[in-house]
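User: Hey, my collaborator sent me this sequence without any context and asked if I could get a structure. I don't really work with proteins. Can you help?
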Amino acid sequence: MGRLVYAAITSLDGYVADADGSFDWSAPDAQVHAFVNDLVRGIGTHLYGRRMYQVMSAWETMDDDGQPAVARDFGRIWRAADKVVFSTTLPSVATARTRLERRFDPALVAGLVESAAANVSVSGPGLAGQALAAGLVDDVHVFVCPVIVGGGTPWLPQGVRLNLQLFDEQRFSNGTVHLHYGLGGERRH
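Assistant: No problem. I've predicted the 3D structure and written it out in structure-token form, which is a compact way to encode the shape of the chain:
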């Protein structure tokens, strides 16, 4: 049985993208990227909404030549995992090991996590918000960047209240802080 993991890189004021839709300020340095790689290494399946899938699908065909070792490593990890894209508008998927679901179904996601041999990640604030609201998320990882962007796309949904336990924290030399929260050993679904 796996755990459902939500991880996000945010600004100090809680946004994954600024008001213009940019997230270039969140690009991890080598130290943070290596940490993210180790976190993602334990993921067997990624759950994406359309927009996040379209961003992440670049890893399928990205030319590794000249890329830093941490980027090459992430690409290999990402390509080796299964992906499920939840979208009502995406006509088809263009990456290997990927299937398309037309709507977010909490029972489907719970079953996927329950039968998984490895952890499952949910990515993107919209889809993760639905999973959080449905009580499906077991672990929350947030990488807080030392930048205030003043508005944009929040990383957490409004109207959801969860009491979490701090499991771990990590401070990086570039000022980024990683916080790992979870529900302890309990499963809520």
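In plain terms: The longest helix spans residues 30-41. You can pass these tokens on to your collaborator as they are.
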